[in-house]
Amino acid sequence: MSDVERMPRPRGLRIRHGVPEVIATIVLLLAGIMVILPLIIPWFFVFKTQLEYAYHPWSLPTRLYLNNFRDAWKSVQLAQGLMNTFYLCFGAIACTILPSAFAGYVFARYKSVATEIVFYAVLIGYFIPAQMVLIPLYKMSVSMKIVDSIPGVFLPISAFGISFWALIYRSFFRNLPKELADAAHIDGAGHSATFFRIMFPLAQPATMLALLLVFIGCWGDYMLSLVLLSDQNHFTMQLRVAQFLNQYGVSKMPKYAAAALISAAPTVILYLIGHRWIIQGALAGAIKE
């Protein structure tokens, strides 16, 4: 032990937190409660009968009434919404990750005035909120004849996400040793072979981060789906649950709570399984220019 560690500590010594630390702690606690609360509230209703909810909405259920899950699955037609949402998520992943990785690799590997200008031009799209371009986006979808279709939703989602993920991949590829690509070129590998066989596999942390976050973001999309979809056969999980609430209000809250929990379950499970990859990918993609 060092001399500092052996020194006796004064009795009654307390660590005093300043006002900014206390305020930051309170703000973080409130933010955490706001995130957790929507996941807790449905459990007060989901195991109750309609009559029990009408008389005692906030009390604990007297018994576990599981038929709400079955009734919600049938009445809200969650099976079709589930398939549409999976189609939407996988389409967005396919159209986001590989183009972003290509762009990030080019911006990191081939530095020039032209690539820097193109990079910042692409990055501008990250600062444009989707709400500002809803009307032009809808008109463009109509002219391209992809409105009211699942591809007509995941293509705009991918377009909005490519700017951000190109930045993440660019930062990640810049942190990789340049000698790896040089050695591959000496061995006769072309640009495509170097990317697919060496650089892209090494970017697995960034790819896992993109895969998980794009899936979670797509699963929770509501605004673009609401604007671009009108055929109920193409409705996603979020639209079907919202449609059920708009139709019945809170009069059938136990079934609505069951539908909300079913729709949220895949993303919660995916986060619990892959949160360590999210942390690893975020740390690996830290910007070190």
Helix content range:
over 70%
Helix count equals 14
Under the CATH scheme, the architecture of the largest domain is Orthogonal Bundle
What is the overall silhouette? Answer: globular
**Average pLDDT taken over every residue:** 85
Low-confidence parts lasting 5 or more residues at pLDDT below 50? Answer: none
Please tally the β strands and state the result.
0
Report on the biggest sheet.
Answer: none
Structural class: mainly alpha
CATH superfamily of the largest domain: MetI-like
Determine and state the CATH class of the largest domain.
Mainly Alpha
Number of domains: 2
Radius of gyration: 25 Å
Can you tell me the CATH topology of the largest domain? MetI-like fold
* Proportion of residues in β-strands: under 5%
What does this structure look like?
It contains 14 helices and no strands. The chain has 289 residues and is an all-alpha fold. The chain has 2 domains: 3-55, no CATH class; 67-284, MetI-like (MetI-like fold, Orthogonal Bundle). Helix 4 packs across helix 14 (253-284), helix 11 (204-219) runs antiparallel to helix 14 and helix 13 (237-248) runs antiparallel to helix 14. The chain is globular, with a radius of gyration of 25 Å.
List keywords for this structure.
about 290 residues; mainly alpha; MetI-like fold; 14 helices; globular
List the helices and strands and how they pair.
Elements: H1 3-6, H2 19-40, H3 50-55, H4 67-75, H5 78-109, H6 113-124, H7 134-144, H8 151-175, H9 178-186, H10 191-202, H11 204-219, H12 223-228, H13 237-248, H14 253-284
